[in-house]
Amino acid sequence: MIVPTIDTELAVLSANKGNFAKHGVCVSVSDYEFVMMCRDKRNTGAFFEQHGIRVPKEVDKYHPTFPLFAKPYDGSLSTNLHYIKNAEELTEEILNDPKLLFMEYIDKAVYKEYTVDMYYGMDNRVKCIVPRERIKIRAGEINKGLTEKEPLTQYLRDRLETIEGCVGCICIQLFLNPQTGDVVGIEINPRFGGGYPQTYAAGGNYAEYLIREYFLSEKIEYIDGWKDHLLMLRYDDAVYV
Q1: What is residue 146's predicted lDDT score, i.e. its pLDDT?
Q2: I need a labelling partner for 219 at 20 to 30 A (CA). Which of 22, 78, 89, 180 fits?
Q3: Residue 218 placed within a domain
Q4: What is the pLDDT of residues 67-89, one digit of tens each?
């Protein structure tokens, strides 16, 4: 089994799943159409809305309201992101970047940010949902996080219980206003994310589910017995030998 973890691998591996299968190799990646939808955030927004999940409102960059946020439609690792507070910060370089999407700024002082690890079985139905609050982020990856069952677990199960062509682990990024309950969908990564070790530590053993489904031919039922409010802290250290 091949389990991709980097965005740039996904399209070619997905497109060649059939060729790998001929040689007895399973590629744990969703169908090509779903992967390409996730890679383009313009299409991801339409997907969220079709499933009843709000996305940030689009902003006309030539008649903007501030503050606003700009990000590339195919970006990753939190690169080329722009929080623009006024007209002076909306430079010609930003305006003329053809890859940037301009949208409503979601205030992190009001909204909590989450990554949700979701496992989809061979039947394209969700088997486990583990939301992780992204308390602190560094270089696009979670540095401090907290697992939280409610309210996102049932919210997402109601809306995304089945996704055609979706298998294995995906991670969805969302914002939640804890006062109003407003949920805003940001992006979908159809792969294991950098913060998955926290989900694993909480009991979301997606590697085991892959083995049970694809090697042992077992049917996976929905699983929700993972640890709520598990805190993860990451840090760097130097080792001298």
Answers
A1: 97
A2: 22
A3: yes
A4: 999 988 876 656 788 999 999 99
Q: With a cut of 70, which residues of the chain have pLDDT below it?
A: 75-78
d(CA 141, CA 76): 10
As given in the structure block, the two tokens for residue 132 are 């992780």
126 and 47 housed in the same domain: yes
Omega before residue 151 within 30° of 0, cis: yes
In terms of domains, do 125 and 183 share one?
yes
One domain, residues 159 and 73: no
Residues whose CB is less than 8 angstroms from the CB of residue 239 and which lie 6 or more positions away in sequence, other chains included = none
- Cβ 210 vs Cβ 168: under 8 Å: yes
**pTM of the predicted model, to two decimals?**
0.90
Q: Which residues contact 211 (CB under 8 A, 6 or more apart)?
A: none
Task: Count how many Cα atoms sit within 13 Å of the Cα of residue 122 in the half-sphere of its side chain.
Answer: 14
